[in-house]
Every structure is written in structure tokens, then in C-alpha cells.
Amino acid sequence: MIKKLEISGVHLDLEEDLKKYVSKKIAHLDHYIPRQTRGSAHAEVKLKESHAKNKRQFTCEIILFLPHEQITVSESTLNIFAAVDIAEETLKNRLKKYKEKRVSEKSAHKDRKVRRLLGKVLAKSR
Fold first, then answer.
1. What is the CA radius of gyration of the chain?
2. Within a 10 A sphere around the Cβ of 76, how many other Cβ atoms?
3. What pLDDT does 108 receive?
4. What pTM, to 2 d.p., does this model score?
5. DSSP state of 18
6. pLDDT tens digits for 63-118?
7. CA–CA distance, 118 with 124 (Å, rounded to integer)
8. 43 pLDDT more than 70
């Protein structure tokens, strides 16, 4: 679970059910964060309401702070819950890419270490 989660509203009164909904959605994302970075990850969620051409527009912006990287997602729709859902899905896909990148970098580093050690062992045996 993401330990630090800040939810704020701009031109919008945050009701308790909306806060719980956002917390549940964002807390679920820790499965897509590498284990080593889960402890230091924290998120900011900004929910905004705007009026344009007699239409209410809701925006959900999620900023996830990870070691060496910051992932930002922003989605706008006519429904605040739909905006949260779409932003959560987009962030989930971006986190999958982040995790793949981190895991591949880590395995490449381990491969270099193994090759280096193997080279030393073979050099000593000759």
C-alpha cells in the first residue's frame, strides 16, 4: 500500500465517499511498483472541477513520486469517478512499463556481475 497519499480538491468539495474511492484505487497500484521502491513511493491526487460552455468538466491528476522518477497522469471527463478510473488505468500501464524497465536494468547488472566473476574464475583455472 502506498503509505503517503495526499488528496486535494480544486473548486470541488471532497466528500468522504470520493476520498475512500480514490484511496482504494490508488492503494491498489502498489502491486505494480517494484518491491524495493514501495517504501519510498508516495502519491498526490488533485481533483478539479471546471465549467466550460455550460458543461461541468472534472479532471483527475495523479502524481506518483518514485525514486529517480516522477510519473504524472491527468484525465478529464464529465464524471469525477470516471476520471479517477481512467487515470488509475493509465497510471497502472505506465507503472508496468516502469517496473519492466527497472527489472530489466537490474537483471542486466546481475548478468554483467556473473560474467565478470566467471571470467575471473576461468582466468585463475588456466
1. 21
2. 15
3. 66
4. 0.79
5. H
6. 999 888 899 999 999 999 999 999 999 999 999 998 888 777 766 666 677 777 77
7. 10
8. yes
The answer to whether the CB of 87 falls within 8 A of the CB of 74 is: yes
pLDDT mean over 47-55:
88
**DSSP H stretches of helix in the chain:** 16-27, 35-38, 80-125
Q: Candidates 3.90.180.10, 3.40.50.150, 3.60.150.10, 3.30.160.100; correct CATH number of 4-95?
A: 3.30.160.100
Identify the residue whose cell numbers are 455550460. 54
Q: Per DSSP, what are the bridge partners of residue 59? A: 48, 76
- 57-63, Cβ contacts within 8 angstroms, sequence gap of 24 or more: 58/12, 58/83, 59/83, 60/84, 60/86, 60/87, 61/87, 62/26, 62/87, 62/88, 62/91
HEC profile of 81-111: HHHHHHHHHHHHHHHHHHHHHHHHHHHHHHH
Matching residue, cell 488505468: 89
**Domain-by-domain residue ranges, the chain?**
4-95
Q: Which of 40, 39, 59 is nearest to 49 (CA)?
A: 59
